[in-house]
Amino acid sequence: MVNLFEKFSQGHSYADFLARHANENQKKRWHQVHELVMLSKAQHELLASFKRTMPVLCLAGAWCGDCINQCPIFEHFTVASPVIHMRYLDRDEHADVQKALQINGGDRVPVLVFFSEDGTEVARYGERTLSKYRQMMMDQYGASCPTGLVHSGDPLLMKVAQDWLNEFERVQWILRLSPRLRQKHGD
């Protein structure tokens, strides 16, 4: 069985991952999405309020459209919250991690694994968020497939960023409320 926290230490920063694995066209696309991501004041404040160190491993592919449209969001989170430590692994270069993180029997990316500061796995989340799947259902099945949704008019990127932020927040609160970590930190 693969030790995912050990793999975290083998991961790359956002910039290093792109430098190592993306061609010029892919880098351009990642940069374009990065420029489109805008976190609200409330989102910045939430991220700045995080206290527990949160190592996060992201299995990704520089070529992958879902990664291009989501991973730049994570870079914004790491800038807003110094306790979030992201590391990226290339899916194809790390077949053992790819196998360990399959979703629905398939090789999917991006997939994130959240850890506590001491390497305990806290959660996994990935490959597309609920907002993205809702949009895909509307695009592929239209109104004939009722989802019970009210569309707010927000661009999909903003919805996806909020979906991801919800998961980062959930993990942060798991870490903050952990009896083990509270005892360790005296809080």
Quick recap:
This protein is α+β, with helices and mostly antiparallel strands and 187 residues long.
Task: Please describe the structure with a list of short key phrases separated by commas or semicolons.
Glutaredoxin; alpha+beta; 9 helices; four-stranded mixed β-sheet; 53% helix; 187 residues
Tell me about this structure.
The chain has one domain: 3-Layer(aba) Sandwich (Glutaredoxin). The chain is 53% helix and 13% strand. The chain is built from 9 helices and 4 strands; from the N terminus they run ααααβαβαββααα. It has a 4-stranded mixed beta sheet with strand order 2-1-3-4, sandwiched between helices. Helix 5 links the parallel strand 1 (54-60) and strand 2. Helix 5 (65-80) packs across helix 8 and helix 7 packs antiparallel against helix 8. The model is unreliable at 147-152 (pLDDT under 50).
